[in-house]
Amino acid sequence: MINNNQQQDQTNDRMAERIADPIIKGQRRLAAALNQWINRYSKKRQQWLLVIFCGIAICGLIICLAVPFGRIAMQRQSFQPSHIGLPSDGSPTTTHLKPTDPLTKKK
């Protein structure tokens, strides 16, 4: 039993290696390309790029947090509550739906 578990672990490790190797190689290539690109600039310019990137990221996060709770979101709620089994497009149907349950259906 222990031998079978060890063999299974080795198989899983090989499979994980095959999956992880291309991902890690791609990450290393991307990091090398970004390092090569950013190292063309002076340290002062790199700091400004970092500040700009962080500022844009912070603004994006604030917008993502503020929009769902803002006044704009409250005004756009035009949906109508619907009953289970009715279409979800929000338009109420005026015709009565026929029952499809075989226990309640009259013969």
Q: Topology, please?
A:
Layout (H helix, E strand, L loop, with lengths): L1 H37 L4 H24 L4 H5 L32
How would you describe what is shown here?
- It is a single chain.
- With 107 residues, this protein is mainly α.
- Helix content is 62%, strand content 0%.
- It is built from 3 helices and no strands.
- It has helices spanning 2-38, 43-66, 71-75.
- The chain is flat.
Kindly list the characteristics that best describe this protein.
107 residues; flat; mainly alpha
Low-confidence parts lasting 5 or more residues at pLDDT below 50? none
- The rough form would be described as flat
Structural class, please?
Answer: mainly alpha
Helix content: 55-70%
What is the succession of H and E elements?
A: HHH
Distance between the termini: 62 Å
Oligomer: single chain
Strand portion, in percent? under 5%
- Mean pLDDT, to the nearest integer, reads 80
DSSP helix count? 3
> Main β-sheet: number of strands, strand sense, barrel status?
none
Q: What Rg, in angstroms, do the CA atoms define?
A: 29 Å
In short:
With 107 residues, the protein is mostly helical. The chain has helices spanning 2-38, 43-66, 71-75.
